[in-house]
Amino acid sequence: MTDGSQLRRWVLAKRPQGVPHADDFRLEQAPLSELQDGQALIRVDHISVDPGMRSRLSGDSYAPALPIGATIESAGVGTVLTSRNAKLKEGAQVWGGFGWQTHAISDGRGVQALDPAIYQGAIKATAAIGIFGIPGLTAYFGMAEIGKPKAEQVVLVSSAAGTVGATAGQLAKIAGCTAIGLAGSDAKCAYLKEIGFDVAINYKAAGDLTSAFKQAAPKGIDIYFDNVGGETLDAAIMNMRRGGRIVVSGQISEYNTTTPRGIRNTLPFITQRLRMEGLVVYDYGAQFVEARTQMAAWVREGKLTYREEIIDGLEQAPAAFIGLFSGDSFGRRLVHLGG
Amino acid sequence: MTDGSQLRRWVLAKRPQGVPHADDFRLEQAPLSELQDGQALIRVDHISVDPGMRSRLSGDSYAPALPIGATIESAGVGTVLTSRNAKLKEGAQVWGGFGWQTHAISDGRGVQALDPAIYQGAIKATAAIGIFGIPGLTAYFGMAEIGKPKAEQVVLVSSAAGTVGATAGQLAKIAGCTAIGLAGSDAKCAYLKEIGFDVAINYKAAGDLTSAFKQAAPKGIDIYFDNVGGETLDAAIMNMRRGGRIVVSGQISEYNTTTPRGIRNTLPFITQRLRMEGLVVYDYGAQFVEARTQMAAWVREGKLTYREEIIDGLEQAPAAFIGLFSGDSFGRRLVHLGG
Question: What is the value of pTM for the model shown?
Answer without folding.
Answer: 0.90
